[in-house]
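Quick one, T. Sequence first:
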Amino acid sequence: MNDVEIKRVTKSYGQVTALEDVSLAVEAGTTFGLLGTNGAGKTTLFRLLIGHEAPDAGAVEIAGLPAERGVEVRRRVGYLPEHAGFPPSFTGREVLGFHADVRGVPATVRDERIAAALATVGLADAADRSVGGYSNGMNRRLGLATVLLTEPQVLLLDEPTAGLDPMGVDAFNRIVERIAAETPITIVFSSHSHAEVERVCDQVAILDDGRVCAAGDVDDLRRDVGETVTIDLRIGEDDSPSAVADRLRDAPGVTSAEPSDDRGLRVRCARPDTYGVLSMVHDVAAVDGFEVREPSIEDVFREAIDGGVSDASGDQRVGSGPTGGAL
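Structure tokens:
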């Protein structure tokens, strides 16, 4: 069963097409990532999902309902926008009390829900402090707590870690991972960070200029990039990474070889040729260390933006046609 169905959706603002013939489906219980640059269409897609706007063409269903049934949808869907502010004089508990009231949480379970939400996001000890004294990360986690009060079927997180420091990002993502592991909730997670989506999400869609150019299971998409690995090497002080790169560029299986800094060398090659490449480097230079990395979502993103990669089925190149891939 799918908790999200986006069927051939187009949305324009005047002469600007924000989404063009987009089709996606998100299976219930999945943590699904949306990747794309600014202006790719991610926020427009979220606004359509929550019913804040209607598509010019196509249909959007979420949590078993047409998205245009906004009030009913918002009873089943929790939406955390990128920027969510709270009155600085309120305590965390008061913020949640207000949101519980607005969202119609029954009085009989309100205190219990507030306590559970505070515990889930790690703010139980700060519940009675004014939110004006909260850090950015704490405010973002408080925002997440507000949308958990209704125990939503689908959780929409629009750039939830934008602007946070690495510790704040890690704390937020650990909470999302725990929610996904312990509840049957469906999560749609928008981000600029490839590493973040790779860490948190089961599946991903990559948007570029309002179109889906790749979509599918994270592991399948990484494999779909091809049998290419990246080798990061540290070259000895008496040798030149540039000179080694020049020797490698025409070697069998090598697709690129470039210095990464004054001692570093980055080589991309076919997986079966990894040993041969390492042996060749060893023959011409001293190697202080190396790391072999499998394809990442960042590699998928670059490949997709440059020209499209296959969808999860492997049957088509979803960047080449008018419609996106269905998950």
